[in-house]
Design a protein that fits this description.
Keywords: ATP-binding, Magnesium, Membrane, Metal-binding, Nucleotide-binding, Phosphoprotein, Transmembrane, Transmembrane helix. Belongs to the cation transport ATPase (P-type) (TC 3.A.3) family. Type IIIA subfamily. One of its GO terms (molecular function) is metal ion binding. It is a multi-pass membrane protein. There is one protein chain. This protein is an alpha/beta fold. The chain folds into two domains: 131 residues, Calcium-transporting ATPase, cytoplasmic domain N; 147 residues, HAD superfamily/HAD-like (Rossmann fold, 3-Layer(aba) Sandwich). It is built from twelve helices and eleven strands. Helix 1 packs across helix 2 and helix 6 runs parallel beside helix 12. The chain is elongated. The N and C termini lie far apart (67 Å).
Length: 286
């Protein structure tokens, strides 16, 4: 049921993590579930005890919790993460793939939730999908349009699925030439080919942090000046490598120290101000 999905995803959500997805999951569960509304201690789930937790990792794309049911002392594990990862974990499920693609076509992100079957801590079964709406910021389309007017090409790099990336690109007025990040590390292609893909694409989907660095590196070899935005610890190498590293609002200290520009306001429109200001300075110098 809906309640099962919410409860299991709450058990596998990182408590206190400042992550928008984890916050959304915790908020949804706390708002909907009676068991969580009336509990005396906000740090416990009545009847359950989380004994082990592996937080979300960009490479595995899932988080994992080990839970004990107090009454029966039965132990089970819950995994929550990117739908393709969870579907693979349960050994495939065509209905789930269809559901995820239908949601993605509407621009909705899905998060898979699976739990282990009784008496076996290695075999998972699919519980269901949580949907999340992650719309682009209201100023993004305008920012991209202004950048293009100034002759700055904008590329979107996202960990989301390809189908969602294309939908978001379309909403932002970019063309839908989005490649799977696998293209960047394809051993069958020469560096020359990969660089051409990099130049022509409007963006990349399903990337892991290492790919960001690779994109910067390939474009710089072409003699292009590259600016890169980022907010996490794992973006720091790419921010450092780029000609202009831009740490966005609410970023980690690692990103802040690796960047050249730190944005203090949410959104990306400030970047355009940076471009106009720097060009004005350059004209004066000239």
């Amino acid at each position: 049921t809906k309640n099962d999905i919410l409860l299991l995803s709450y058990l596998s959500a990182e408590p206190g993590a400042n992550d928008p997805i984890e916050s959304a999951v915790r908020f949804a569960a706390e708002t909907d579930l009676e068991i969580l509304k009336s509990r005396p201690n906000k740090h416990e789930v009545p009847g359950y005890k989380v004994t082990g937790f592996v937080p979300f990792n960009p490479n595995t794309k899932m988080s994992n919790a080990t839970v004990v049911i107090n009454e029966t002392n039965e132990v089970f594990r819950v995994a929550k993460g990117a739908p393709q990862v969870i579907i693979k974990l349960v050994g495939g499920n065509d209905d789930a793939v269809h559901a995820v693609n239908t949601l993605a076509g509407r621009g909705l992100r899905a998060l898979g939730v699976a739990r282990t079957i009784p008496g076996d801590l290695e075999t998972y079964e699919l519980v269901g999908m949580i949907t999340l709406l992650d719309p682009p910021r209201p100023d993004s389309a305008e920012t991209i349009r202004r950048c293009n007017e100034y002759g700055v090409e904008v590329k979107m790099i996202t960990g989301d699925q390809l189908i969602i990336a294309k939908e978001v690109a379309h909403r932002l007025g970019m063309s839908r030439v989005i490649l799977d990040a696998g293209h960047l590390v394809d051993p069958d292609k020469s560096d020359e080919e990969v660089t051409q893909h990099c130049e022509r694409a409007d963006g990349f989907a399903q990337v892991i942090p290492e790919h960001k660095y690779r994109v910067v590196e390939l474009l710089q070899k072409r003699g292009l000046l590259v600016g890169m935005t980022g907010d996490g610890v794992n973006d720091a190498p790419a921010l450092k490598k780029a000609n202009v590293g831009i740490a966005v609002h609410g970023c980690t200290d690692a990103a802040r120290s690796a960047a050249d520009i730190v944005l203090l306001a949410p959104g990306l429109s400030t970047i355009v101000d940076g471009i106009t200001t720097s060009r004005a300075i350059f004209q004066r110098m000239r």
